[in-house]
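Quick question, first post here. What does this chain look like in 3D?
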Amino acid sequence: MKMYLISDNVDTYTGMRLAGVEGAVVHEKQELKEQIEQVLSDKEIGILLLTEKFGRDFPDVIDEVKLNHRLPLVVEVPDRHGTGRAPDFITSYVNEAIGIKL
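> Answer (accepted):
Ran it through. Tokens below.
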């Protein structure tokens, strides 16, 4: 299975291309929808990487893919500006998931 990146900036795209991951750079909601449709039609793509900005700006588009499609696995990755998550997001996630305070 292949990975595919949809990025909002050229820097993240270039870094992933150097690692051998194909992808595209888009900025508008319609462009994002078109790229996602292309990814969904390619059965070889098992992981879809998206920069976190898309999750913040277009959550309806991303949630539709996550909820209605088994594959590809959608993973939001930070870009060159860093992450939009809280500094302790992993600890908070584990605490919420298992109910034990770490």
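The radius of gyration is 15 Å.
Strands lie at 2-7, 22-25, 45-51, 73-77.
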